Amino acid sequence: LWFAFLALATTCVWDARANKGYVGLEGGNLCIVPPANGTVIVGEYDLLVTVSTQQAMIKNMQSDLSTQNAHFSQQRTLHAALQCRARRNGFDASLRIPTKGAIDWEHFVIDNEHYLALANQHAGGGEYELDSVVFKWSGGQFVSLQLIPTIGAYDWEHFVINSTHYLAVANFRSLSTFEIDSEIFRWNGTRFVSVQLIPTIGGRHWTHFEIDGTHYLAVANFQADSSVEASEVFKWNGTHFEPFQQIATAGANDWVHFTINAEHYLAVANQHKLATYTVNSDIFKWDGTMFVTFQRIATIGASGLEYFSIGDQHFLMVANFYTGSGYETDSELFAWNGTYFASFQLIPTIGAYDWTHFEMDGAHYLAAANHRFFSDFQVDSELFKWDRTKFVSLQLFATQGAIDWEYFEIDNASYLAVATQRSDETTFLLTSNLFTWNSVCFV
After folding, report:
1. In what order do the strands lie in the sheet with 164-171?
2. pLDDT band at 439 (very low <50, low <70, confident <90, very high)
3. Closest CA to 304 of 404, 418, 379
4. Is residue 170 within a helix (H) or strand (E), and if so which, with residue range?
5. If 0-12 CB within 10 Å is exposed, 13-18 middle and 19+ buried, where does residue 81 land?
6. pTM for the model
7. Which pLDDT band, with edges at 50, 70 and 90, does 224 fall under?
8. Which of 64, 173, 225, 395 has its CA 20 to 30 A from that of 312?
C-alpha cells in the first residue's frame, strides 16, 4: 500500500533561488522536495518518488506520528503531497506547437468556440513568405484549422463589427522591401477570407477600437529607409477601412488604445529613430475629431505597451528592449495620477519585447517576454504578481527568443501562450509553448 501511493507521479517543485530540499510534515501537510543541483524552473518536470526518498519519508513520519495512528495518517498526508496540495501556484508547460519565427498569438472566440491565430514571421535564410495558422480548440488541444499566406507576419488583431468577425494581419517585410500590404480577413462561418489590402511600411502592430459607434484600426509602421515613418489610423466607412489620420512615429512597434473617465487615448511605443534608441513614446488624446499629442514618455528602445486597471488605478506598462549598447535595462510601469502618467515602478528586464496583464481569481499578474541578451536568446521570461502596492516576481520561465505572451481561459482553465521567435541568429524553426495554470508545491 505504501508503494502504491509513492509510485505516483507528482509535480512538487522547489524554489529555484533557495535551492533547498525538504522531506517531512509542515502544517499538517506533507511536501516532498529533494535537493536541487543548479537552477530549476517551475513547471518543467515531473518528480517520481524514489526508494531512498520513500525511506526518508517513512522515517520522518515515524518520528512525528504515533505508532497507533501512523498507518492511516501517513496515507492521508502522502496522498495530499502527491496531489501537490498548493501553498502557491504557477504555470506548467502543457503543449508544444511547431512555429516558424513566431511573433504573435491572438486568442478569440466565435460562437463559443476558441481559436488561436499564429503569426509566423521568418523561417530563416530570408524566407518571409510563409503560412500563418489559425488553430481551433478541439479535444483538449489546438488543432490546425486554416493556413493563411502572410509575408513576414508580425501581428494579428481580432475584432467584431456588427456581429461579423475579422482578423487583421500586419505584414512586416519581404526579403527585399518593407513596403508590404497588410491584410484584413472576414469570417464566413467556416474560415477567414480576404476582404481588404492596406498599404503599410514595415507594419508591426494593429489595434482596433471604437469611438461613439465608429470603428477604427491603427497600424504601427516600423521601418522604411529612414526608420522614421508616419503610422496611420483607418476608419470604417460601413464596408471597408479608409485612411483617417497619419501620426508621426519613430520605429513604431506597438499601439494601445484605452479610456479613462470616458476620454479616449492612443499610445505608441517608439523603438528608435535612426541609430538612437533613447526616444520618447507618445500618448495621444481624442479631441472629438482626431488624436492630438497629450503626453510624451521617456522610453529606451520601447517594444511594447500594456494598459490595464486595478480597481480605480490606471497603469501603462512599457517594455524597454534595447539601449543602443545593451539589453539589460529596466522596463517601466507608469500610473495615472489624475492628470497624466507618472513613473510608478522599475522592473529589471533583459531585451523585453512584450508585457501581458491578466486577472485570475481576483489577483493581477504581468508576464514579461524577455527576448535576448546580445547573441544569446536563451533568456528566462518572468511572471509578476500584484501585492497591493507593487508587482513582485512569482515565476521564471525557460524561454528562448520570447517575443509575445497571450493569456486566455477555456472551460475554467487558464493558459499562457508564448511566441518563440528564435534560438540563435539563424534558427527559427522551433516550438512555442502553451502553459497551463496548475497547483504546485513550493517550499
Report:
1. 153-161, 164-171, 179-187, 192-201
2. low
3. 404
4. strand 164-171
5. buried
6. 0.81
7. low
8. 395
